[in-house]
Amino acid sequence: MNFIDNIFEKESYIPKIIKELKEQKFPLLFYGAGVTSNYLYGLLTENGVTIKDVVVDKEYYHENSQLMGRKIKIFEDILNSNEKVNVFIGFYTNRINLVKQRLFSLDKINEVYLVDTPAIFGGVIELYTYRYIVDNLTKFNLLYNQLCDDVSKKIMCGFINQRISQKMGYLDNLWTKDNYNPKDNYNPNENIFNYNTDEIFIDCGAYDGDTIKSFVKNIDLAGGNYSHLIAFEPDQQNFLKLQRLQNDIKNLCCINKGVWSKKMILNFNNSGTETSSISEDGNLSINVDSIDNILENEKASYIKMDIEGAELEALMGAKETILMYKPKLAICVYHKRNDLLEIPQYIKSLVPEYKFYLRIHNLFSTDLVLYAAI
Fold it and tell me: What is the structure's pLDDT at 275?
């Protein structure tokens, strides 16, 4: 079956959800106050949906906490009333199906609503549309035919269907959920990568060191080893956490810079979370540099990038390193809409021998990773 034959969705179903919510006779609870909640809460209220209360589970409740000016209440307290309610889930977790089951088991819940949360980075929300797919069909076909296994092709189509429709479900049986630990992203458990005894791992967007710890664990399980690790993290709060790992992990070099195509200073949204990102209206100026400049022709055997939309620029700054050493690559391709089309082809333009695989590490249409190996 051709790529386009696997794209079933033509439009977002959120307008239908909003219409249904406005017509419902039961009060609506907005459930959650996480990173994506502001966007989803605003989406509903700006479209005329009345929200009775914003609630979180008791374990996440903090006195005087708010969501967009609304005081947050404890979910369990709201359920003590006799009133039946609808619930809109405003957060994401890979245990979302268990959350839905728990909600439906409660007598006070009439209906539960959930949409796929789009990637939100630097204030930019870039959704796929069917028109965009058709307009770029030649490029999508090229990538589809470059993917080396059926799993990758199914993931590509499932990701796009879910991004267009914002319906959950397309990725339920495709994400890497066996013994799943979100810290194990970028370390596929399949035979995509072969680890050597002298790996040099470059972690771009090291956050608090979660991927570093996962890499060290996984390479040991695979019978390999590493000579040294280089971790880039520009966020000040995250970098302090990252540095602490140097006490426990040998040969770890931590660099408080962003990764880019060249050395310069850029604005940065220093949020202290995993969504910190380069942004024109960022609250901090940071130093960025290229991998080629930092390494100065030294070897890299594995490069991972999860840098909130800066991946293509950073790859351009690793051009000589990729040409010289042909390292294993694990590159996020979900932050910007064009990433799925542009990043693989840029990599192919440098090293045509690379083989491509897609894996997704989330039930939502995030954490889509392109793995490239010789």
Answer: 61
pTM attached to this predicted model: 0.91
Helix or strand run (H / E) with residue 154: helix 150-165
Task: List the structure tokens of 272.
Answer: 């202290």
The answer to whether 362 touches 333, Cβ cutoff 8 Å, is: no
Q: Cβ of 343: how many Cβ atoms within 10 Å?
A: 22
Please, is 45 exposed, middle or buried when counting C-beta atoms within 10 Å of its C-beta (0-12, 13-18, 19+)?
A: middle
Domain around 254: 138-373
Percent of all residues in the chain with a pLDDT value above 70, rounded to a whole number:
90
Domain containing 70 — which CATH number? 3.40.50.20
Q: How many CB atoms lie within 10 A of CB 366?
A: 21
Q: Are residues 361 and 303 in the same domain?
A: yes
- At residue 323, what is the residue type? L
Number of domains in the chain: 2
- Non-local (6+) Cβ contacts of 359 within 8 A are 151, 152, 155, 176, 188, 192, 368, 369, 371
Taking the C-alpha atoms of residue 206 and residue 9, their distance in angstroms, rounded to an integer, is: 35
Does residue 185 carry a pLDDT above 60? no
pLDDT in tens, 119-156: 554 455 678 999 999 999 999 999 999 999 999 999 99
Give, in order, the Cα–Cα distances in Å from 362 to each of 112, 116, 271.
20, 11, 22
Asked whether the predicted pLDDT for residue 277 surpasses 80, the reply is no
158: pLDDT strictly greater than 90: yes
The span from the CA of 363 to the CA of 336, in Å, is 18
Give the model's pLDDT for residue 179: 42
